[in-house]
Amino acid sequence: MGSWIVIAQCHYNGDYLQTAIIREVNGTKEQALGELRAVVHTYRPRTRIVEKWRRVYRLADGESYFVLIKGMATLWNCTLQIAELVSDSADQSEARSMQAEETTADPAVEPQDRPPRYWHDPEAFG
To answer: For 58-92, b where at least 16 C-beta lie within 10 A, e where not — what string?
Structure first.
């Protein structure tokens, strides 16, 4: 079990980028992918789009989609995908868990999915 989000990154007419969290999923990756598949044919980046047509492409990774939406005056292109939460500084139980892992882990090996050390960390430079 994990914490996942379904996100859309959309451009229209090549000028504007917006990223939106469409859904939050507390569950498995398969459940998050199910939520992604549930919205790929209906998601609209703006509520007032009068949709003339939509094309949905599955990307090579099999877990992301590229969607073209033609409105009356604009052409939107959106990438819809899922993302897993790997770190949350507001979650104290996770912070304690991460501290415990750091004390037992090899200090020469930096974890790949944690934020980098910050300048105020005395161990960051030495």
So the answer is: eeeeeebbebebebeeeebbbbbbbeeeeeeeeee
Secondary structure tally for the chain: helices H, strands E? 2, 5
Give the per-residue pLDDT at 1: 83
At 3, give phi and psi (nearest 5°): -115, 125
Q: With beta carbons less than 8 A apart as the criterion, state whether 89 and 95 touch.
A: yes
Per-residue pLDDT tens digits for 47-78? 788 899 999 999 999 999 999 999 988 899 99
Alpha-carbon distance 78 to 20, whole Å? 10
pLDDT higher at 56 or 107: 56
Maximum C-alpha span of the chain: 59
pLDDT tens readout for residues 74-106: 899 999 999 999 998 887 765 556 555 555 655
Q: Residue 34 and residue 36: Cα distance in Å, rounded? A: 5
